[in-house]
């Protein structure tokens, strides 16, 4: 059996709570303290529903998942920082949003 190593970097997401009026534009920012963690991921979890991947960046190349390509949600990569922008907010956007970061190196044995 191969040995496993788990690495971690602190991820700070602000604001922790955001209240918005309908039609507002909302920005949630996320940063971490380790520049080797260049992959960023944004997830959404609506009440009582599963966690869903919105999109991710590898370095600064953005990929939005199916169902999130209409421009309503946008991810802005910037080195150790990333932002999630929700345009024209509505009650349908009420959810918990998570950001994550990884080094992501693949090893095949």
Automatic annotation (TrEMBL):
Keywords: Immunity, Signal
Domain Ig-like: 24-109
Pfam families xrefs: V-set
Gene3D superfamilies given in the database record: Immunoglobulins
Protein name as it appears in the record: Ig-like domain-containing protein
PROSITE patterns (UniProt xref): IG_LIKE (PS50835)
Highest taxon of source: Eukaryota
GO terms classed as biological process: cell surface receptor signaling pathway; immune system process
InterPro entries referenced in this protein's UniProt entry, alphabetically: Ig-like_dom, Ig-like_dom_sf, Ig-like_fold, Ig_sub, Ig_V-set, TCR_beta_variable
Gene Ontology CC annotations of this record: plasma membrane
């Amino acid at each position: 059996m191969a040995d496993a190593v788990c690495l971690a970097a602190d991820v700070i997401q602000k604001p922790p709570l955001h209240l918005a009026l309908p039609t507002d534009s909302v920005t949630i920012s996320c940063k971490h303290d380790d520049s080797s963690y260049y992959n960023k991921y944004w997830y959404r979890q609506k009440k009582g529903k599963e966690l869903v991947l919105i999109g991710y960046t590898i370095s600064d190349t953005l990929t939005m998942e199916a169902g999130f390509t209409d421009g309503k949600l946008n991810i802005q990569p910037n080195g150790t920082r990333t932002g999630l922008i929700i345009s024209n907010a509505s009650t349908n956007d009420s959810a918990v949003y998570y950001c994550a970061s990884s080094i992501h190196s693949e090893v095949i044995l």
